[in-house]
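Try this one yourself first.
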């Protein structure tokens, strides 16, 4: 199997797996201890959690704190539903992840969408309506990879008296942290860490109300016993991203160049320049994507976001670019990264192209 679905999830880094093993201990070790217990094994587990917190924080701006969550979806829910002024208006880009859009709609407050242009980019000068208290703008889109002007819109949000929430799930560990954001959501399994853990970064001075009540963990914002193993894996993966960011980016650029050379007749969805080049979202008019995926079943790629797969609905992201329903259904997403080999990548693209060409004959 050639895996080309890095936007859905990334392979677990061996270093992250190794870091987790010490905290998956059985009764013959102390690695199973509760990190919130005051005895020596508990304090050791707590130290592992705090090391992980520092490692994750190194991916983010200075002047804030990291709250561990079960994933980015919980982090986004905490940011939106726990924000200080729940009566205000929420503004979000039209291509946000469903975790943002659905939570905003469920919040019970006024909610408006910011449009994007045909390249999938938000206009940084978009007007912010009076009464807006939260602006949501993702750093890197999960379907088309476009990189949004977070810093510019954050300045406008602050001028309007609003906070800015940035979903940095696809960008964290790959590109520089988003500037100007007040809250940033992360997911470990999108940066070579384990599933089941994420984080919400809060700028100093931002106060939220908790969604989960109980033991008062995570500074009172997220009750529940933390998993030292998941935290350690997240931290190790984050540290590896810090150390390998330059070489990872160079590898992705090489793969992007190979892809654009091998698939010149496929149309690119989204900006070619203002995007993370580990995301290749392409369309071929008239393509039967379901048949293509069936004929290439030993290549793992996507017809859209993993969260929306099987819904049968056209991608809201591609529709926001102005594409027709037919164009959205003839689009595929190819995702690649650190562990993608050049040879297997080129082989997979040639096979996808050959099978698609047979459909067009």
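Now uncover the answer:
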């Amino acid at each position: 199997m050639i895996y080309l679905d890095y936007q859905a999830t990334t392979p677990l880094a061996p270093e992250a797996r190794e870091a987790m093993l010490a905290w998956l201990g059985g009764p013959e070790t102390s690695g199973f201890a509760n990190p919130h217990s005051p005895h020596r094994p508990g304090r050791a587990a707590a130290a592992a959690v705090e090391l992980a917190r520092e490692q994750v924080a190194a991916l983010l701006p200075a002047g804030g704190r990291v709250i561990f969550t079960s994933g980015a979806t919980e982090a986004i829910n905490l940011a939106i539903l726990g924000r200080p002024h729940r009566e205000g208006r929420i503004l979000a880009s039209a291509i946000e992840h469903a975790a943002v859009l659905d939570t905003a709609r469920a919040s019970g407050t006024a909610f408006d969408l910011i449009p994007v242009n045909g390249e999938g980019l938000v206009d940084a000068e978009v007007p912010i309506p009076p009464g807006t208290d939260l602006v949501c703008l993702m750093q890197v889109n999960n379907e088309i990879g476009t990189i949004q002007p977070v810093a510019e819109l954050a300045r406008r949000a602050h001028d309007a008296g609003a906070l800015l929430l940035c979903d940095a799930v696809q960008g964290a560990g790959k590109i520089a942290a988003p500037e100007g954001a007040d809250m940033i959501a992360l997911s470990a399994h999108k940066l070579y860490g384990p599933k089941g853990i994420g984080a919400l970064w809060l700028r100093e001075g931002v106060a939220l109300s908790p969604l989960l009540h109980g033991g008062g963990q995570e500074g009172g914002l997220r009750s529940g016993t933390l998993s030292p193993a998941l935290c350690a894996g997240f931290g190790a993966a984050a540290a590896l991203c810090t150390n390998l960011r330059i070489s990872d980016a160079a590898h992705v650029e090489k793969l992007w160049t190979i892809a654009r050379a091998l698939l010149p007749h496929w149309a690119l969805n989204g900006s070619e320049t203002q995007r993370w080049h580990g995301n290749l979202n392409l369309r071929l008019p008239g393509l039967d994507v379901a048949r293509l995926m069936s004929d290439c079943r030993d290549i793992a790629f996507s017809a859209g976001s993993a969260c929306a797969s099987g819904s049968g609905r056209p991608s809201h992201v591609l529709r926001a670019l102005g594409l027709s329903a037919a164009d959205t259904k003839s689009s595929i997403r190819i995702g690649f990264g650190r562990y993608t080999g050049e040879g297997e990548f080129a082989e997979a693209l040639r096979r996808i192209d050959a099978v698609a060409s047979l459909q067009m004959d």
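Discussion: The CA atoms of residues 151 and 332 lie 30 Å apart. Residues 2-8+245-360 form a domain with the Aspartate Aminotransferase, domain 1 fold (CATH 3.90.1150.10).
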